[in-house]
């Protein structure tokens, strides 16, 4: 079963999608950008609850590493990029060029 919820982060509304074991998607939700209401949770899920706790801790400066399980689904290329992104240390920035080179194709 899939669950979803909206989270009003400091950067934008985020749509969180999970199954019974992991977060499957976190995406910007432009439809909610200009809405200011609080019934954020659309379906109950312990995984989404944990994700929201960790996001709150992150945005208040009290978390550097996320422990909520992730299960993203994408193309082979997207999955390679996401795997590489997970290796970037907290508070470190890298360029798109660095990522492309690390993936083995400067044009990617």
Compact summary:
With 108 residues, the chain is of the alpha+beta class. Helices cover 29% and strands 17% of the residues. The termini are far apart.
Roughly how much helix do the residues carry, as a percent range? 25-40%
What's the helix-strand series?
EEEHHH
Strand segment tally: 3
What is the strand arrangement across the widest sheet?
1-2-3
Report the total helices. Answer: 3
Structure in words:
With 108 residues, the protein is of the alpha+beta class. It folds into two domains: 3-59, no CATH class; 74-108, no CATH class. The chain is 29% helix and 17% strand. The chain has three helices and three strands; from the N terminus they run βββααα. The chain has a three-stranded antiparallel sheet. Strand 2 and strand 3 form a beta hairpin. The chain is globular, with a radius of gyration of 15 Å.
Quick tags:
three-stranded antiparallel beta sheet; 3 helices; 108 residues; single chain; alpha+beta; globular; 17% strand
